[in-house]
Write a structure and sequence with these properties.
Layout: E1 2-7, H1 21-30, H2 37-56, H3 61-71, E2 74-80, E3 89-90, H4 92-104, E4 112-113, E5 117-118, H5 124-138, H6 142-162, H7 176-188, H8 192-204, H9 220-240, H10 256-260, E6 267-272, H11 297-309, E7 319-326, H12 328-333, H13 350-353, H14 357-367, H15 378-381, H16 384-390, E8 393-397, H17 399-406, E9 417-423, E10 428-433, H18 448-459, H19 465-476, H20 495-498
Parallel strand pairs: 7-8
Antiparallel strand pairs: 1-6, 2-3, 4-5, 7-9, 9-10
Enzyme class: lyase
EC number: 4.2.1.79
Protein name: 2-methylcitrate dehydratase
Length: 508
């Protein structure tokens, strides 16, 4: 890896394009390096993972609305929309939109956490949509798609390693626009000059505030990454037509770093693969076993264990207080340190409860499980004994857990915490967990078998058994797929199921 030193430059310096971060990203995207077998294996896993969570969200309101918007933009050859017949195609940017919302709605796919946080699987919908649309025209098959997805993951992860957005209340999808644009550039074999312009445009148009993940969290949480993917497709299209971007987008004196991030005196060190170096960042990412914010994954597993081993803890009459000692990020984003009263509100939205570790820990402790629908049901959140126990749960920042959260050493990096439960009789129960069971270093790491099982579980009752088998066959042959087979990288739900919900009317 090459470390690039990135800082603000005055306009009078006339910073050469080749010295700009957007150009370095473009060079990585344009490098036709081979994809390692283990990277290919993980790309396949994440395609299956995305399909699983998208399938489970087909009838949810944000997904229905996004799908209705997409189908108002039919296109030939076009790209598929998850749930619909493969012959029903829409313009690729709208497919990226609809499929991106479906993938993100349940907050249930892969994650990478470092200086910033991210869901790198958000790169898949826009890159796949472009691949399906241009497969025949540009002779794009599974191998080209795998290479492009490796780029998308690489760029997003490398930006997340080095540039914090949330510290300045900028939403994390500002790293996704550039990564998706870079991945599409790899897919289409574009020159660095074209990818450079697309990356700049994608970044410029995807910088938004973090209010989408604060307070009463709205349905926009699912739309934000889909918007970034849609914007990336459009940015590449414009760049291919010769249109340019604000330059330098990162380093300019009125650019992103100077006014949205650490300011004119900022300095970042961004690692990127050197020429001919494999893009392996996807191997550092991890998926979710549970449909909840990633920092809650390990704590759900700990709560499930306590449910089995200490059942008396599920009764609020026995519990005086529960304090979760954890990282700064967990405390301030999904913990009591956020100072969001909504995190303790039984009438809060699903999106809000998904970002409340006091609620999540309580329900997992009482139920001994976590379910992507049942655990968020209004009647579940409002149960009196749950509310009583929930109100005893707070979080506290622990410097040791903060250090581990930001560690560059995979063996030390952790997203868990230490739970101290004080009983009404004065005794204490103290337990801790570093990583989720499904984490590569966890008790039960996810491999192909677990990804397939997750898909089968979430598709059960939604897709026909034959469709489940068909998709898994196509997805697991991804590296060898012909251009005419890329359209099969979607799921088709029964027509009766899809017509059981009414799409809201809008402009389109």
């Amino acid at each position: 890896m090459i470390t690039h030193h990135v800082r603000v430059h005055p306009s009078s310096a006339n910073l050469p394009r080749t010295d700009q971060l957007a150009w370095k990203i473009a060079e990585v995207a344009a490098d036709p390096v081979a994809v390692a077998p283990e990277v290919t294996e993980m790309v396949v896993n994440r395609v299956i993972d995305n399909a699983a969570v998208a399938t489970a969200s087909l009838l949810r309101a944000p997904v229905v609305a996004a799908r209705a918007q997409a189908t108002a933009h039919p296109r030939t050859p076009g790209a598929t929309v998850v749930g619909l017949p493969t012959a029903e195609r829409v313009s690729p940017e709208w497919a990226a939109w609809a499929n991106g919302v479906a993938v993100r709605e349940l907050d249930y796919h892969d994650t990478f956490l470092a200086a910033e946080y991210s869901h790198p699987g958000d790169n898949i919908p826009p890159i796949l949509a472009v691949a399906q649309h241009l497969a025949a025209r540009r002779d794009l098959g599974g191998a080209e798609l795998v290479r492009a997805l490796a780029t998308g993951y690489e760029i997003q992860v490398d930006l997340v390693r080095s540039i914090s957005l949330h510290a300045h209340k900028i939403d994390h999808v500002a790293h996704l626009g550039p990564s998706a644009a870079a991945g599409i550039g790899t897919l289409l074999g574009l020159a660095p000059e074209v990818i450079f312009q697309a990356v700049g445009q994608a970044l410029h148009t995807t910088t938004a505030t973090r209010q989408s993940r604060k307070g009463e969290i709205s349905t926009w949480k699912a739309y934000a990454p889909a918007f970034a993917g849609k914007v990336a497709v459009e940015a590449v299209d414009r760049a291919m037509r010769g249109q340019t971007s604000p330059t330098p987008i990162y380093e300019g004196e009125d650019g992103v770093i100077a006014w949205m991030l650490d300011g004119p005196g900022a300095h970042y060190e961004v690692p990127l693969p050197g020429p001919g170096e494999e893009k392996r960042a996807i191997l550092d990412t991890y998926t979710k076993e549970h449909s909840a914010e990633y920092q809650s994954q390990a704590l759900i597993d700990l709560a499930r264990r306590l449910h089995r081993e200490r059942p008396e803890l599920t009764d609020p009459a026995n519990v005086a207080s529960v304090v979760i000692h954890t990282s700064h990020h967990t405390h301030h984003v999904i913990g009591s340190g956020a100072n969001d009263p909504q995190k303790y509100d039984p009438a809060a939205s699903r999106e809000t409860l998904d970002h409340s570790i006091p609620y999540i820990f309580t329900v997992a402790l009482q139920d001994g499980r976590w379910h992507h629908v049942d655990s968020y049901a209004p009647e579940r959140a409002a149960r009196p004994d749950t509310v009583a126990l929930w109100r005893t749960v707070t979080t506290a920042e622990d410097p040791g857990w903060t250090r581990r959260y930001h560690s560059a050493d995979p063996a030390e990096k952790a997203f868990g915490g230490r739970v101290e439960i004080t009983l009404t009789d004065g005794t204490q129960v103290v337990e801790e967990i570093a990583v989720a069971d499904a984490h590569p270093l966890g008790a039960r790491p996810f491999a192909r078998e677990q990804y397939v099982e997750k898909f089968r579980t979430l598709a059960d009752g939604v897709l026909e058994p034959a469709e489940i088998r068909r998709f898994l066959d196509v997805a697991q042959r991804l590296p060898e797929l012909r251009p005419d087979e890329l359209g099969g990288l979607t799921v088709v739900a029964p027509a009766a199921l899809m017509s059981s919900v009414t799409a809201p009317e809008g402009i389109f």
